[in-house]
Every structure is written in structure tokens, then in C-alpha cells.
Amino acid sequence: MGERIISWVQRLFSSDRLVKDVFGRGRGKRVLMCHLPEAFTGKELPKHHSNLTECHVVARCFDRLGYSVDCSSRTKTGIDYSPYEVVFGINGNAFMGSFGSDGKPEPLRIFYSVGAETCFNYRHTSIRNLDFHRRHGRWMLGSNRYMPGDPRNYYEAHFSDAVICLGNEYVYRQFLAEESCGGRYNRLPAFYFKVAEPAKEKDFSLCRRNILWFGSSGMLHKGLDIAIDFVVAHPEFTLHICGGSRQESAFREYYMPIIKANGNIVMHGFVDIESQEFAHILSQCGVLLNPSVSEGGAVAVLNVLGNGALLPVCSRATGIDIDGYGTVVDEMTYDAFEQALLDVDKLPLKEFGQRAWEAYKDISVNYTVEKYEENMYNLLKGIIDGKRK
Questions:
Q1: What's the half-sphere exposure (Cβ side, CA atoms, 13 Å) at 84?
Q2: What's the total number of domains in the chain?
Q3: Whether residue 172 is found in the same domain as residue 81
Q4: Element (H, E) at 290
Q5: In a domain, 65, yes or no
Q6: pLDDT digits 0-9 by tens, 203-260
Q7: Taking the alpha carbons of 90, 190, 282, 212 in that order, is the dihedral positive or negative?
Q8: Do the beta carbons of residue 74 and residue 52 sit within 8 Å?
Q9: pLDDT digits (tens, 9 = 90+) for 293-309
Q10: By the 8 A CB rule, do 9 and 49 touch?
Q11: Shortest CA distance to 317 belongs to which of 342, 290, 336?
Q12: Measured between alpha carbons, how far is 46 from 335 in angstroms, rounded to an integer?
């Protein structure tokens, strides 16, 4: 299941399609979205990944603003940009091609950053590997998450007319730290998919020591090593692992013998969030652990918290505001997360449960697709209206 999902995402991002006027409006004002044309097939959008829903929502926002919307994949080249007033999108050839117009009138460029600032990401994923090397005496470079090897991500973010950063104030500040043109940056909270309801009488006395790690590729980047090392050192806890990547062979070769030797680690593989299995895992677990070093608003965290009552122990870099009920870890090391988990374990049962339910309520109310759409619409309108003045 997991490898099929990875393959599906890779196919989306390698398409060369260009879909014109996705809603059939026939308007004179046109915008080019450099995103995923597959979002406009007319079929129900899957929830394996948030990207197709994001793309469709953004197109609806431009439609509300009076534009006809064309959509191109990230690898599309040879595009005539002259008909477009606005070019919106994520990194890739389609977006990069709008630069260098040879003296022609240039469109308004709005870069949509779904990850952390490039330099921040490089620094912190490297620091994470150093922490692993200090503890295990080896490198695990294939399980970091680096941006593409060319400077496009940096160029697009720092030379577009406006940037929309997915995430919270912390993510937004990482962009501002790299340059002085702060007025171009706007932050946008991410969203989750509502697919399940937690049991109203969830028994935290049974599940508070069951920890859930829910992630994808870049297993060191996302702190799976921290989760495994913790339950090995503290066998009174149980770890449930959902996701990971078979492509990260060095990580798997190192950790699989450790996992098999410890009965308190449960490997679920990739889990469909619309399945009964996902709901059952959420009911079994009391703590969500996410030690990721760099995100643009971790949708994996939102999907867990918005569908189950779990107490989050997360890095600041997840880009989600959980300070009111969760435990936020600023130092991205094993020792810091170990202490955070032990501190959470000392909480009175009633307080533990209250904080878990508060997490569920906050995400359920404040991170819906509807709020994401309204926030995106307001940001786009403000950017476009500001440019016209």
C-alpha cells in the first residue's frame, strides 16, 4: 500500500499536462496555476495526500476572484505566459519559466511554499543527522529530506512578488530570517481531512503509554529514530509506526533487527486514513510523537489530532500551534524528546485526558478545509488588490 501511494505521488509530480479553463468560464482574466492538473478530472479527490485538495481549493479561490484558471504540472515547459495576469504555484519548471520574459510585461507571481524555508531545512535536517551520528556512530544521509539540488526553491521564494507560506508564525519567521523583504510573505494554516470520530469514553489509563508515529519518507528527518530509540530504552511504552519508506534501505537495515527484537514496537506500514484500521489505531494510542525538524505545517499531525484524542509531543518545527495543550520541544535532539515524553507520562490521568481532548477540539475547529479556503481567498485577494494600487 505504501509503495503504491509513493508511486502515485511521483506520477502526479512528473506529469506534463496543461488543462485550460478548468471550470469552463471563458473569462478574459486568466491565471496559470503551476500545480496538479489531476485535481480537475471530475472524480472525487483521494485523501492519500493533501496536494490535490489544495490545488482544487486554490482554483476555486481564483474562480471567485473572477479569473479563468489554467493548470499546468510542475515539469511543463514551453508555456506562453503572455495571456496570464497571475502565475501561482509551487516550485518547478512551469513556475520558473515565468521569469526571464525578455522585456515583455511580467505576470504577478505568487509562490506557494508547502515546506519550510530552504536554508532552514538544510541546516536542521543536517543537524538531526549529526545528533544521530553522535548516538549511533554512523550517518543516515538517505533518510534526510533535502530540497532539489538546484537553487530553484530559493529563487522562487525570494524573487516572486508574493509568497504564501503553509504553516504557523514559526514557519513564517524562518523565511523572514533569510532576507529583509518581509512584506512579501504571508502565512497560511494547513488543513486536515475529517474521517473519524474518537470514542467519547476513551480510556486513557489503557492507552496513555501507547505512542503513535505517523509519517512518510525522510524517516530521520521526521524523527522515527527518536521514537524507536525511546521505546527500546523504556520498554514500558509501546510504539505504533504508521508509514515510513521502503526506499530508505540503510535506515530499514539498521532498525529492522531492533524492531523485531522488541515486542513493544508495532509496524503497521502505510495506513489509509479513511480505513477502519486508522480509526482503531487512534483509539489504541494516547500520545502522538512528531519530532520532525522541518515542516510547512505538518498535515500528518493534523490528520491524527483532528480524528483522534491524542496528546501531541511535537517539535516546534512542525509548524502547528499546540502550546495550549501539547508539549512543544524546541531542541531537536533525542535527549530533549525523551525528557518531554517522560514529563507527559507523569501528568495526572485527568489532565492527560483533558489535554488530549483539547487537541482534538482545537484541530477540529481551526484547521478545516473550509477555513483553509477562506484564508487562501483572503490572502489572494489582498495580494492582487495590493498589486493593482
A1: 28
A2: 2
A3: yes
A4: strand 287-290
A5: yes
A6: 999 999 999 999 988 999 999 999 999 999 999 999 999 998 888 999 999 999 999 9
A7: positive
A8: no
A9: 999 899 999 999 999 99
A10: yes
A11: 290
A12: 38
381 plus 244 within the same structural domain: no
CA distance 130 to 245: 21
Domain range for 84 is: 8-117+147-191+369-388
Q: How many CB atoms lie within 10 A of CB 150?
A: 10
Alpha-carbon distance of 98 to 153, in angstroms, equals 14
Task: Retrieve residue 74's grid coordinates.
Answer: 510542475
**Where on the phi/psi map is residue 237: left (φ > 0), alpha (ψ -120 to 50), or beta?**
beta
- C-alpha cell, 160: 516572486
Residues whose CB falls within 8 Å of the CB of residue 335, separated by 6 or more in sequence, listed in order = none
- Closest Cα to residue 106, out of 114, 118, 98? 98
- Amino acid present at 288: L
Angle at which helix 2-12 crosses helix 51-64, to 10 degrees, equals 40
- For the chain, the first-to-last Cα distance in angstroms comes to 50
One-letter amino acid identity for 238?
Answer: T
Contact 212, 198 (CB under 8 A): no
Helix (H, G, I), strand (E, B) or coil at 176: helix
The three grid cell numbers given for residue 18, joined into one nine-digit string: 496543461
